[in-house]
Specification:
The chain is mainly α. The protein has one domain (2-62). It contains two helices and two strands, in the order H-E-E-H. It has helices spanning 2-25, 40-62; strands at 29-31, 36-38. Helix 1 (2-25) packs antiparallel against helix 2.
Length: 66
């Protein structure tokens, strides 16, 4: 059980590291005649990161060890 928890933690840290890197280095969405910059990855990334973290935790809690 202890080893399983370590892999769950590594997975969730990896997810949020990827979200942070994508949010920092992704290009902005530029719209309008007066160019407005909107950091789309920074706005949407945490939503997908939360979904992925929930999925990892859910699968880890549902699966049984052999």
């Amino acid at each position: 059980m202890k080893e399983k928890n370590v892999w769950i933690a590594i997975s969730i840290v990896g997810i949020w590291a990827a979200v942070a890197i994508a949010s920092i280095f992704s290009p902005d969405l530029v719209t309008g005649t007066n160019p407005d910059h909107f950091p789309i990855a920074a706005a949407v990334g945490p939503i997908f990161g939360a979904f992925a973290s929930f999925a990892v935790a859910f699968v880890a809690l549902v699966t049984k060890e052999k």
